[in-house]
Design brief:
The protein is built from six helices and five strands. The protein has helices spanning 13-24, 62-70, 95-103, 123-131, 135-148, 154-170, and strands at 2-8, 29-34, 48-54, 77-84, 107-115. The protein has a five-stranded parallel β-sheet, with helices on one face. Helix 3 (95-103) links the parallel strand 4 (77-84) and strand 5 (107-115). Helix 1 crosses helix 6. The structure holds flavin mononucleotide. Flavin mononucleotide (FMN) binds next to helix 1 and strand 4. Flavin mononucleotide binds next to helix 1 and strand 4.
């Protein structure tokens, strides 16, 4: 199979996951590019696309959506991956491209997500985010900021690699 891994990554977290996915795919032709380097007209030349982004303001980056909007034909198989700072995943993250995939009768074979520390968030912003919370919620958030530090970590990247292996071996 000819496989494309493409992603938007502002601070490198999602890019790490993209590279781990690549490491998990053996025996196929794999291209890996940030979305800005992908010509929308070449998407159709692939058998499968792993599409990734960080989550910014509850959604994937607009450049990922725009790539899909501009595509002239799509492969039948898509896989999503994303990183997020929140404790819980965003099941609606790729909503902006749902109708495009439906219209093109594309199948979504799976989704990988993991936490990614928000490297742009300053200590001051962290404190502001917690300032007006009741003590219990504040404690929870503080704990989450501690837990998310350093993610995606080695274990997340190993999971991403195994995820890609499973997806590709199922086909
Ligand atoms: C401007 C901005 C907005 C963000 N909004 C969200 C959000 O709505 N939900 C969330 O879980 N994480 C949010 N994050 C955290 C990122 O999703 C997370 O750190 C992710 O791993 C970044 O990936 P990247 O390094 O590939 O850009 C935001 C980060 C930035 C910089």
């Amino acid at each position: 199979m000819k496989i494309l891994i493409t992603y938007y990554s502002g601070t490198g977290n999602t890019e790490k996951v993209a590279n781990a996915i690549k490491d998990g795919i053996i025996g196929h032709e794999v291209d890996i590019f940030p979305v800005k380097q992908v010509d929308p007209t070449i998407l159709k030349s692939y058998d499968m696309v792993f599409l990734g982004s960080g989550i910014y303001g509850f959604a994937i980056n607009r450049k990922v959506t725009n790539l899909m909007k501009k595509a002239t034909g799509l492969p039948s198989k898509f896989i999503y991956f994303y990183t997020h700072q929140s404790p819980n995943p965003w099941p609606e993250a790729f909503k902006s491209i749902e109708s495009i995939l439906e219209r093109n009768k594309c199948e979504i074979l799976g989704e990988f997500e993991c936490c990614g520390e928000n490297l742009k968030m300053t200590e001051e912003q962290r404190q502001t985010a917690m300032k007006n919370l009741p003590p219990e919620k504040r404690k929870e958030m503080e704990e989450h900021f501690r837990v998310v530090k350093g993610h995606p970590n080695v274990e997340d990247l190993e999971n991403a690699k195994k995820f890609a292996q499973l997806i590709v071996n199922k086909i």
